[in-house]
Design a protein that fits this description.
Blueprint (H helix, E strand, L loop, with lengths): L2 H14 L3 H20 L6 E6 L4 E11 L8 E3 H7 L8 E6 L5 H29 L5 E9 L6 E5 L4 E5 L15 E13 L5 E8 L3 H11 L1 H4 L3 E9 L3 E8 L6 H6 L4 H9 L4 E6 L4 H8 L7 E5 L4 E6 L4 H5 L4 H10 L2 E6 L7
Parallel strand pairs: 2-3, 11-12, 14-15
Antiparallel strand pairs: 1-2, 2-4, 5-6, 5-8, 6-7, 8-9, 10-11, 13-14
Length: 356
């Protein structure tokens, strides 16, 4: 415990926003707890003072000044007390200083772990406050490291004050993430969870696979969506491969698809670049269910849609040469269309009896 200790706390306060007072209280409490376990009854009278000005830590035991000492752990004779300070008298409580090295082993034993725990608790607390109002939004972080084994990427935010993991399952499949890269991520949620030691901590879940990322990217790139003229009704996404997004316009003079594409495809290209080439189908929403489902199956052409509103299902007929396109590779196009519209979709080729 010296000037370097206080300098470290000053740095923590500056970089992590953790007050020195908070850290000192945590360290002191931990040392007290350790001393209690080590020294038993003596610990009840043990105390410490942290002097930031001098950069020193003072350990002492509080003892009652008495004429006759019956319990040396809690009492001190007037004669001995006078050696400490002439001001002490019978009935006073004397502070008997203890050499720091006497408790050095105990302090060292708990110090590191306590400081790490205190930092984590403070960071988790401020982390929740920082990101609570960003839930459902896009934030930009800098990739500071990538785990070679798990491929988990760690991003820093707010000039390095916070670090958050981007789990492999939340990364766009096929995307190559490099250290130093600026990455847009979607804040899925801020939640409380139990860590490996059984303590409840705050956790911020960030993602690049969540459909909310696509929604927010369109809001950032398309002014008509940001101001409410064009509305995003539904999104179906298989990250890294394909997304379908249904939009409608509240102004008959504004084409919702054209607004999303932008002049010379500038808007949609910016979104596609951020999604690393993921295909995006922009669908015009219609209150006519049949028309909406037909549009959702694009780029395939649809001849007929027979809708069962009660069971939220439908039978779709397409030209024979459009069947594979309507279904898509491994059923992806039909699957996304069903997710987008909320209807179960059975597709058949014109003239065929078998439903696909």
């Amino acid at each position: 415990m010296n000037a370097e200790f206080f300098e470290a706390l000053t740095m923590l306060e500056k970089e992590k926003g953790i007050s020195k007072g908070y850290m000192l209280d945590k360290v002191k409490a931990a040392i007290m707890s350790a001393i209690k376990k080590e020294q038993g009854a003596v610990a009840e009278t043990f105390d410490a003072e942290f002097d930031e000005t001098s950069g020193k830590v003072r350990f002492f035991i509080k003892k009652d000044v008495v004429e006759k000492v019956e319990n040396p752990n809690t009492q001190i004779s007037l004669e001995e007390a006078k050696k400490i300070s002439r001001r002490y008298d019978i009935g006073d409580v004397a502070e008997v200083e203890v050499e720091t090295k006497s408790f050095g082993r105990i302090a060292a034993k708990v110090g590191k772990n306590v400081i790490i725990q205190a930092i984590n608790e403070a960071v988790y607390g401020s982390l929740a406050q920082e990101f609570a109002d960003k839930q459902g939004e896009i934030v930009t972080g800098i990739v500071v490291r990538i785990d070679s084994m798990t491929k988990e990427a760690v991003l820093e935010f707010n000039n390095g004050r916070y670090e958050l993991p981007l789990m492999l399952k939340e990364q766009i499949p096929g995307e190559i993430i490099r250290e130093g890269a600026h990455l847009k991520v979607y804040v899925v949620e801020v939640r409380r969870r139990e860590n490996q030691k059984g303590r409840l901590v705050n956790e911020v879940v960030i993602s690049r696979t969540h459909h909310g990322l696509v929604r927010r990217l369109f809001e950032l790139e398309v002014p008509e969506i940001a101001d409410g003229t064009v509305e995003v009704l539904s999104i179906a996404r298989e990250a890294g491969s394909r997304t379908k997004i249904a939009v409608m316009s509240r102004d008959e003079n504004v084409d919702p698809i054209g607004a999303c594409i932008g002049p010379r495809r500038a808007r949609i290209n910016n979104i596609l670049n951020e999604l690393k080439g993921e295909k995006v189908d922009i669908i015009k929403y219609s209150e006519d269910t049949a028309r909406y489902i037909a549009a959702a199956l694009s780029p395939a052409s649809v001849l007929e849609v027979d809708v069962d509103e009660e069971n939220r299902s439908c039978h779709v007929t397409v030209p024979a040469d459009q069947l594979s396109l309507a279904i898509g590779k491994e059923g992806q196009n039909a699957r996304l269309a069903a997710k987008l519209t909320g209807y179960k979709i059975d597709i058949r080729a014109q003239g065929a009896d078998t439903v696909q």
